[in-house]
């Protein structure tokens, strides 16, 4: 079950405990990265292009509820 992602005007809220700030997010993504290796072989990602991304689950850090989040309006956001 995909979980809706927050927007500029919404954020997540746990429906069980009311948490607004701490979540563990499991996501699947397809990404193209430009990786630069220095002469010692240490990699640095210089460019990242996210082609697709899906949030698989969201777990509340406060009460451990899984997929019990809802989207609520951000305070002060233009609706």
Radius of gyration: 17 Å
List the quaternary state of the chains.
single chain
Q: State the share of residues found in helices, binned by percent.
A: under 10%
Q: Give the overall form.
A: elongated
Low-confidence segments: none
Number of strands: 4
Pairing-aware structural class of the strands and helices?
A: mainly beta
First-to-last CA distance: 27 Å
What does this structure look like?
The chain is mainly beta. The protein has no helices and four strands. It has strands at 10-14, 23-37, 43-60, 69-73. The chain has a two-stranded antiparallel ribbon with strand order 1-4. The chain has a two-stranded antiparallel sheet with strand order 2-3. Strand 2 (23-37) and strand 3 form a beta hairpin. It starts with 9 loop residues before the first strand and ends in a 6-residue tail after the last strand. The model has no long low-confidence stretch (mean pLDDT 92).
Task: Pick out its properties.
mainly beta; 4 strands; single chain; two-stranded antiparallel ribbon; 79 residues; two-stranded antiparallel sheet
Write the layout of secondary structure elements.
Elements: E1 10-14, E2 23-37, E3 43-60, E4 69-73
Antiparallel strand pairs: 1-4, 2-3
Task: Provide a concise account of the structure shown.
The chain has 79 residues and is mainly beta. 0% of the residues lie in helices and 54% in strands. A hairpin with a 5-residue loop joins strand 2 (23-37) and strand 3 (43-60).
């Amino acid at each position: 079950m995909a979980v809706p992602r927050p927007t500029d005007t919404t954020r997540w809220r746990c429906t069980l405990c009311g948490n607004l700030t701490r979540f563990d997010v499991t996501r699947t993504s397809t990404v193209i990265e430009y990786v630069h290796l220095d002469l010692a072989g240490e990699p640095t990602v210089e460019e990242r292009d996210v082609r697709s991304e899906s949030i698989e689950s969201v777990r509340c850090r406060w009460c451990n509820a899984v997929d019990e989040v809802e989207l609520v309006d951000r305070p002060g956001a233009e609706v």
